[in-house]
Specification:
Elements: E1 2-6, H1 13-22, E2 26-31, E3 49-53, H2 59-66, E4 71-74, H3 81-86, H4 88-105, E5 111-117, E6 129-130, H5 141-156, E7 159-164, E8 166-168, H6 179-189, E9 192-195, E10 201-206, H7 207-219, H8 221-224, E11 228-231, E12 237-239, H9 240-250, E13 255-258, E14 271-272, H10 275-278, H11 288-301
Parallel strand pairs: 1-2, 1-4, 2-3, 4-5, 5-7, 6-14, 7-11, 8-10, 9-13
Antiparallel strand pairs: 10-12
């Protein structure tokens, strides 16, 4: 089976790509390497690995790559409110229009497995779980583009979408800005964090379980196609304060305080049911605690000293 991954050298792709190669799939990655990352260098050992430096919005590039592809995984996206805010045109053209281009050019037989985000639920109802049937009310440009992209992917048929919880864990193309990754980094180096609106809740999922769910979707495509699936840890619908308490178990010197004034620009607040994906036989391997321990080891290696004289 031949798999095309756009954005395959990003945070998720840098874990997913070697996972698929190790399982014997032929993988082609299209990426523009905007972060100058070398996260797929170890994949070059595989004869079944192909790499194309290019833009997922380029029609001739996509048309050429689709000629010899069975499965398409469109990972390419501008992610997170700060980056999307700085490049709103890029957010629209990469997160939505590039996905629409794939849907327009792909044959009906080609399968699409696409990650979206459960941030599309926006602000949920207190105490009520968001399911795949819950209304989508994105409150950010990123969430809006991903919700719109999911709609066209599911409408074209022969597709699966994964509504990912907030992802955490180590990746060769690391992102320290994601909530769990950020809080553990601060706990490890600063020993303290000030929290705004600490009662806001969201769901979490480890990056290696994200890779695992894509493999699960490929291997069980016929029984799963045509639907969206929430993908998160059932025991990790946590507020920011609860997340900090969990981190403190592994870093006891960590101190966290909730600011009495001020607000979080990210207003997402919801709890999520992952029953649909679990009912397909999928099981996660990584608990939140295991991921925190992994991050502590990772941050022993990584230090952000780019603008420091120490």
């Amino acid at each position: 089976m031949k798999i095309l991954i756009t954005g395959g050298a990003g945070y998720i792709g840098s874990v997913l790509t070697p996972t698929l190669l190790a399982k014997g799939y032929e993988v082609t990655v299209l990426d523009n390497f905007m972060f100058r990352q070398n996260s797929l260098a170890d994949c070059c050992q595989y004869d079944a690995f192909n790499i194309v430096r290019g833009d997922c919005r380029n029609e001739s590039t996509i048309k050429e790559l689709l000629r010899d592809t069975d499965v398409i995984i469109p990972l390419a996206a501008l992610v997170g409110a700060p980056l999307c805010g700085r490049d709103q045109i890029g957010t629209q053209t990469i997160n939505y229009e590039a996905v629409k281009l794939i849907c327009d050019l792909a044959s009906p037989e080609q399968r699409i497995l696409m990650p979206v985000t459960n941030s599309g639920y926006g602000i949920g109802i207190s105490g009520k779980y968001c399911t795949e049937e819950s209304p989508l009310r994105p409150i950010s440009l990123y969430g809006t583009t991903k919700v719109n992209a999911e709609k066209i992917v599911l409408e074209r048929g022969n597709s699966i979408t994964f509504r990912l919880a907030t992802v955490f864990g180590m990746s060769p193309r690391m992102r320290v800005d994601l909530l769990v990754n950020d809080f553990v980094y601060r706990a490890f180096y600063d020993r303290a964090v000030v929290i705004f609106e600490g009662h806001f809740k969201r769901n979490y999922i480890h990056i290696r379980d994200v890779a695992k769910v894509f493999v699960h979707g490929i291997e069980n495509f016929e029984s799963m196609k045509g639907k969206s699936y929430n993908v998160g840890l059932d025991d990790a619908n946590l507020s920011k304060l609860e997340l900090c308490a969990e981190i403190q178990k592994y870093l006891p010197e960590f101190v966290y305080l909730e600011a009495p004034i001020g607000e979080d620009p990210d207003k997402r607040d919801y709890i999520v049911s992952n029953a649909r994906i679990l009912n397909t036989g999928f099981e996660t391997d990584w608990s939140l605690g295991r991921g925190i321990k992994e991050l502590i080891k990772g941050y022993t290696i990584l230090r952000n000293t780019l603008y420091s004289n120490v």
